[in-house]
Amino acid sequence: MDSLTHIVLGACIGEVILDKNAGRKAMLWGALAQSVPDIDFVAGMWMPVSQELLAHRGITHSFLFGIPVALFLALIAARWHKAEPIRLSKWFWFFLIEILCHLFLDAFNNYGIGWFEPFSSTRISFNVLYVADPLFSIIPAISFGFLIFLKTNHWHRVKWARVGVLASSIYLLFAIYNKINIDRSVERELYKKHISYTRYFTTPTLLNNILWFVVVQDSTGFNIGYKSIFDKQDHLNLTYVPQNESLLLPVSDHQEVLDLKKFSQGYYTSEKWGDTLVFNDLRFGQINGWQNPNSKFAFHYFISHPNNNDLIVQRGRFAGFNAESGRLLLRRMVE
Question: Is the whole model's pTM more than 0.90, yes or no?
Fold first, then answer.
């Protein structure tokens, strides 16, 4: 999830677990613990972009990392807060819960997370939540605001913290329910339309959990489209996109290409933009694809010009997004 969500949710969890014993420090420790796994961005500053993609959400998002870091933070907090009646064991479980919550939530995005690093490089991604979903974060953020201004001994503090945690939990269940129904609906429509495939995935589109991006893979490429939770049956219109593996043959042994293929989990295409060879990772959807079925993919990597690839995951997400795009997105959700 985005950093703001981790911070506000971490603060709410901190208030719930530590209650009044630590005062507002519970919020600070909670927000810190939820942010610790993202420290991997520091190492990424010295890596080539293609390797940074694999490093992010890698070892610092693993269980092997989480447990000793929770113990380390517990020892620091227990020493720092000797005056508070909080046992070392409670500090440990508090930090472990916060870190595991971060790892758990990140697995519900489409980026992928290395739970089992360094023993396995398999990335876990459930494709249930968009990385920044306002409806998931809004109630915890409101609760966070109340926790900032309410006095330490105010009895509403824990109440608001619980509301923030409960609201996000209910929304997560709502998202899982949507995911199950969307997948079932896609499978039914592929069967009815006699579309053969090797595998498929669905993932939420920009900032919502209503409209989902669908990618269906066959032996030569992909069929892509969109499916809303409000769609009627037989409403899945697919556009074919060839994989164009042949375009990558001249550079197939380049490390950056090998890294990108691994990162994309096989959901990739290549194409030429003029004289530039471009690698697309389909998992991150299209730029305004609900508006133009043939639009470019949000994640595109310039193989011919690797120095132009800073922030490649972020740059396509809101490119060309305006009031008209937003209006069409909302209309497509409920059509």
Answer: yes
Q: Which amino acid does the sequence have at 18?
A: L
If pLDDT is split at 50, 70 and 90, which confidence band does 308 have?
Answer: low
Let me know: does 95 contact 33? Beta carbons within 8 Å. yes
The domains of the chain are located at 3-175, 193-335
CA–CA gap between residue 133 and residue 13 (Å, rounded): 19
Contact 270, 279 (CB under 8 A): yes
> Amino acid identity of 15?
E
**Residues 6 or more apart in contact with residue 194 via CB below 8 angstroms:** none
Read off φ and ψ for residue 209, nearest 5 degrees. -125, 20
pLDDT band at 102 (very low <50, low <70, confident <90, very high): very high
What angle is formed at CA 115 by the lines to CA 112 and CA 120, rounded to 5 degrees? Answer: 95
DSSP structure string for 228-241:
ETTPPTT----EEE
